[in-house]
Amino acid sequence: MAAPAAVAICLLVPSGLAHASTSWNITINGQAIAKGPAGNDVSCGHNPIHIVVGGNSGTFANLTDGTLQVQRISITDSTGPTYLYDPSQVAYHVGGGDATATNSGKTYKITGHIAPYTNAQQQTLKDAAPVPFEFDATCP
Predict the structure, then answer these.
(1) Would you tell me which of 77, 90, 95, 97 could form a disulfide with 85, CB atoms 3.0–4.6 Å apart?
(2) Radius of gyration of the chain (CA)
């Protein structure tokens, strides 16, 4: 299997972005792909809620304030493909995917199904169905 192509993601970060050393954890299809013990960065902003983990702009989540509707989530796995759930991109996703978010205080948990993709148009790998994921992070 050929290595996935590099994907560039441009982010517009809302003003008032805060930085802190906190912990976070991400799993894809039951496998931990990224875990940040205390000392790794979690950055969060609001309007919409924007969470970036590990200092990696390719691993982030955008949620609406108040209702916590998932607007977009991208997870970069350094050992495999990049994953994306974006309701506005569902036409490109094999099987679509889904995501729901909850929070308790400053801790956010996002779960659902997310599709791997390999190109700048964020199209999924051919015949690659979305897989289960969990994205947990605590904002400063």
Answers:
(1) 97
(2) 14
Nearest to 3 by CA among 60, 78, 84: 78
Dist CA 5 CA 120 (whole Å): 9
Integer Cα distance of 74 and 38 in angstroms: 22
- pLDDT tens per residue across span 84-104: 888 876 665 555 689 999 999
Q: Which two tokens stand for residue 128?
A: 């690659």
Identify the residue whose tokens are 């972005």: 17
Q: Residues 42-67, buried b or exposed e (16+ Cβ, 10 A)?
A: bbbbeebbbbbbbebebbbbbbeeee
Q: What angle do CA 30, 105, 44 make, to 5 degrees?
A: 75
126 burial via Cβ count (<10 Å: 0-12, 13-18, 19+): exposed
pTM for this one?
A: 0.74
